[in-house]
Amino acid sequence: MSVRELVVLGTASQVPTRHRNHNGYLLRWDGEGILFDPGDGTQRQMLRAGVAAHDLNRICVTHFHGDHSLGLAGVIQRINLDRVPHQITAHYPRSGQRFFDRLRYATAYRETVGITEAPVDADGPLARTGGYTLEARKLSHPVESYGYRLVEPDGRRMLPERLAAHGIKGPDVGRLQREGSLAGVSLDDVSETRRGQRFAFVMDTRLCDGVHALAEGCDMLVIESTFLDDDEELAVEHGHLTAGQAARVARDGGVRHLVLTHFSQRYTDPDAFERQARAAGYEGELTVAHDLLRVPVPKRR
What we know:
Strand content: 25-35%
Strand order of the largest sheet: 6-5-4-3-2-1-18
Distance between the termini: 19 Å
């Protein structure tokens, strides 16, 4: 059975709190696991969330600030300790290669797993699998940062009433799907396009074209909202978003489920982020993330 869900490992920004670990997010996408921005303490949070090193297939780092990357050293060593049998690919800004190298070989350990390094240096597709295309878009932050987006290929949805009208049933349905036509009936006559799902991950950034491109048409958008709207000047100065800004991005992009995260330690009322997101006009499903939360990706339309 396929599972598509977000496992939230940490939700703090630069300074963790008693209740919020540094960043860490695992996207389960059918049989694959994609780990985003493993901050300090991610290996322990994986244990608490029931996530094993064997669950990982990709690691995506948006940028090399510590709260988004210091956990790499422990995660990579755990991958090797557990002798993960499949390939793991790591994506990260090419400009931070020296930081990735330092973290990958931060201490002595026995290297048993070959991690494929696939650094990012431009907008566009990074990888294509049978289940998705992984894309990157540059963001606006004091250090080079990229957001990530998964796009599932469009499929076909068979329409039972049209199949029945043409007398097509049983094994003939599968034959029509494979061959594209059957006894003068085309696949288009009895089906419609089923739009593939879209997921985006947007961390530290000001508003920019990349943010909107990543969010456009997403079923789920995981996005930083470090500040509340009253502190918008601080957000711009430090290269971050407010709750209202993130919500307007989701509203304008037609996002179905908005997940707010990466909160400054200065705020103690999580509900304030939801109030400001709603005040900004976002009407879809909304989650203010907390550590160890599991959030299902919305079902296909």
